Amino acid sequence: MTDESLQLDPNETVDLTNCDREPIQFLGNVQSYGCLIATSSDFMVKHVSANVQELLNIDPDAAIGGRLNDLLSQRMVHDLRTKLQMLNATMPTARVFGYDVLENGTYFDISISAVDQSYVFEFEPKVALETRDEMSLVQPLVARVTRAPDVMKACEQAAVAVQALSGFDRVMVYKFDDDGAGEVIAEKRRAHMKPFLGLRYPASDIPKQARALYLRSPLRLISDVDGAVSPILPATNVHGKPLDLSLCVTRAVSPIHLEYLRNMGVGASMSISIIKDGKLWGLFACHHEAARYVDFERRTAIELFTQFFTYELIQKMELETRLKTQETRQMHDNLMVQISGGADLIEGFDSIVGELSGLIANDGVAVYTDGRFASHGDTPDEASFRKLVRFLNTAPSGQVFSTHALPAVYPAIEDQDADVAGVLAVPISRTPRDYIVFFRREIVKSVKWAGDPNKPVTVGPNGTRLTPRKSFDTWSEMVRNTSARWSEGEQMVAEGLRISLTEIVLKLTDEANETRRKAADKQELLVAELNHRVRNILNLIQGLVAQSRSGASDVATYTKVLDGRVHALARAHDQLTNQEWSPSSLRQLINVEGQAFLLNGNDRVKITGDAPMLMPEAFSTLALVIHEMMTNSAKYGALTDRSGAVSIDLKVQADGALIIQWRDVGGPPVQAPLRRGFGSTIIEKTIPYELKGKVETRFLLTGFEADLTIPSRFISNEKEPVLPTTQSNDAKPMTPDVLLSGEVLVVEDNMVIALDASDIISDCGADHVHMAGSVDDALAILEKADVSFALLDVNLGDQTSLPIAAVLAERGIPFVLATGYGDAQSITANYPPTHVVKKPFTAEKLRDAVFRAVN
Fold it and tell me: Mind listing the domains of the chain with CATH numbers?
């Protein structure tokens, strides 16, 4: 599927015995879309490709052995020398785009590389001279990858982006496994093409030499598998060695690989290396059904996108690793807490087996310590386990042992009544005898191979040589006597478990004593804190009892006033204790106090503004103040009749202080009291005295007003959760989630907008979205695909989408027009009647337009 053997050195007889391949000789040549000149360090021409005369109007026979200055202009040679200055180990090639090499208006893209003692210059005729800005497409495409929630979704978005940039029919993200085999983990293809997603390809498909060269030269293009090639002249230098073409972008590929591609029905291919930590993580593998040339400038943009994608890939992989590490650390800590409590591993095994399985996935766990055995799940019996322990004792001491193919290293397991194939053994003592062992059953799994992995090569017509497979039908291999592999992360967890358990065994006694000491200290502190709080509450109640006598005309009044104040304190205390003496909601305090007076009429107390949380030190004080203000409003103010209400606005200031604005509204006229009672004293004096805040009160005819300022140290940074509001009856009904089905056409000449629109259309239920950037492309899709809906951009560069709309209307296919023009009506007047959405459109606007169009 990928560039099999294409990067081996030309004319080299390569020993592939270590790659399960036979030797084969490749000829040095270049593809027809470019030509090559190689010089020595003093710019003496050493090699040329035979087609330099066709492309550069240079006679190959006259060129070889001459000076480059005699073939190209002085300005050209000067600029090439300048670019050579940029070459180094980290930048092995330099590039020039759109250069008038012959100074006759014929432009070329140029690649420059240095190999051994040679400078290699490759020239590709410029296919388009119009203003282009491929690099501007890279950033929005990378942004789509960045928004992806995980690695797999990022790979899917990357496949979409590379297809959009390259125009290839199929783009696959091909990931290498630890064993060298590859798997297609993401794919973007034309609707009529057979999917390759999920197929695996044997490691021998890409020899080790080819993989090494993928690291050096990250992008390879085969524009036409049936295209002509141009040989290098002379084929070898004076020492009989061919020119090293490993860094050449126009280098031709082996006929073996071309046959490989033809067998797959591929007319052109391109591969881009995905390199992580200096290693080949995977490839973008691109296939086209016909010949397709992607010019050097656009290929450079694709390389740049791949570099950014690799960075995002690493970020997402590291994030997943960190999240997994945090989760593992938490489970690991939970396990350590249970073990470090002093429980014997055997006696407490049932209580910790869940945590062990949470750390490392398994089918069974067994523990063996001090000659005692306990197990859970699918494990060997005790007698078989003891034999296995003797085998484990032969492994290096104090190290975790793991294998996913136990019968291969311990054949005796097949003679025992145990259905296990994978073992991860964690030693938990300094002597090689005590273990926690995780087991995995044999997993007979069906692997989708794109051809028999054991017979990827056959004897060809020219003898024992590399010969590609003729069939790419899925071939299933049944994997026996193996389990799922133990991942690197699981082995790291096992190592951490080994260290921790070894230390725990040595420290159990000290930790138990420390735990008891801390518990005694904590209990003593709690008793002291409780004693302090009880004394404070008793002193406060004593003050309320004494002060409430003033102004009480009789015992009944006194009792009622005192009862209300004590109940206010009780309600506040209940709220505090429910919050475990942590910051509590002021809104809830006001609501509770309002309910005490109004019962079911609490809607007459209206709270607006912020939702502050009060520190416990200020809560009881505010409870008394709010109680007195609510009492006054119920006795003399707005709450005395049904027409009035209390408005309370809460505002947290920039410095963290809180301002409470209390307003009685709609009640009877209010007069200032002739004398100040204890209630007024609580309202006006308590906050300034106890909290060092401010209080301003105003007795207006329209109602009582108060502004209370609470210092910032009594306001917590915590925020009270805001409950979602219920949607009103007159709210706009939601558009159904599923609006479309089948195949949908998006016609848009801006690729990024087309991709975003395709995402929205897919969310509307479309099974497959075709994208077209021109009228011809769109009409071609309509001829082949059974399109059920279309989104048309009105303006397509120097065209309009009117011909497409006419075909859709004739076939009765609903569509929506998109336009950036302000006067949409005049622009779309010639179109068949339909709905119009203006740019920039949101997902909601486009969904509404789709809903109207299809209903």
Answer: 343-442+487-508 (3.30.450.270), 548-716 (3.30.565.10), 743-854 (3.40.50.2300)
